[in-house]
Amino acid sequence: MTRTETTTTASHEPTDGLPGTAALLVDDAGRYLLHLRDANKPIWAPGQWAFPGGNTEPGETCDQAMARELYEETRLSVPGLAPFVMLETLDAADTLTNRVLVYLGTLNRPAHEIPLHEGIELRWTHAAETVHMAMEPGTAAAIQEHLRHPHPRPDTDGRPPTVRIPAVREPRERSIVGAHLYLERDGAVLLGRRHPDSVFAPSTWHLPAGHREADESALACVVRETAEETGIVIAESDLSLVHTLDLRHPGSPVSRVQLFFAASRWHGEPRVLEPDRCTEWRWWPLQALPEPLVAYAATALTAIARGESYARTGWPS
């Protein structure tokens, strides 16, 4: 979301750190003239739709730069161009990285009659169409500003308002959380043999485990999954975290955090309650674990035996 505020520099005059310029041209039908920039080139906003415009050169005012850029790109000379808004682009640390002074003007000429000397295409576009286009973020923000305020709004010193464009942040990676029960009795650990038709690890031994559901803590997940799979009843207060495995499967875009909880006490004996998932439960001596055993579970059991609270597997070194 953008936020609008007043600039503190008369940005259409030459300054250190000159802003670029862009022309927001509107026709009588309320359409905007957009310029599709070259793709696959080391240029600003490659392959995106933007306003015609460019950099302000040393010694130029922004007014002069706007007129020159517009003529170089389109051979247009548009009278009455007025500073409309200053776009300020921020990086992920909210540091200013780019400034563009957008000028507002009116033009009524078919796009095919406008000679284009840079880029790929010019087209007149209604604002509603832009949601389906690869828009340069500042251009999209300027159009929204124009829809809200269709006329220039300079302050008492003649300065246009500022729209700040926050960085498009990459979505943070989210990991799937798995919760596992490490149930040890007389030097043996409880393992179940998964059904031969299981999608994951068929006919392979594994700990009681599952993925937590929405609004469910990992502890609650262990308690629920254990009761559903084995009939064993455990209180959350009797569980303690003994190991965390940071897991990435080769080729998988999603990482997993596998949590292993040990129970200090419990009620009941293991029973096969989900025969379509598990065919048997058995206590296996820690020194004689069965094969095949789910690989990451084997990694975790080895780490638990060594007293290691964390391990990772599948990640680059």
TrEMBL record:
Q: Which UniProt keywords apply?
A: Hydrolase
PROSITE patterns on file: NUDIX, NUDIX_BOX
Q: Which SUPFAM superfamilies match?
A: Nudix
**Would the keyword Transcription turn up in this protein's UniProt record?**
no
Could you say which cofactors this protein requires?
Mg(2+)
Asked if the record carries the keyword Lyase, the reply is: no
Q: Which domain of life is it from?
A: Bacteria
The UniProt record lists the Nudix hydrolase domain at 16-147, 172-307
- Where are the annotated segments for Disordered? 1-21
**Which Pfam families is this protein grouped with?**
NUDIX
Q: Which family does it belong to?
A: Belongs to the Nudix hydrolase family.
Record's protein name: NUDIX domain-containing protein
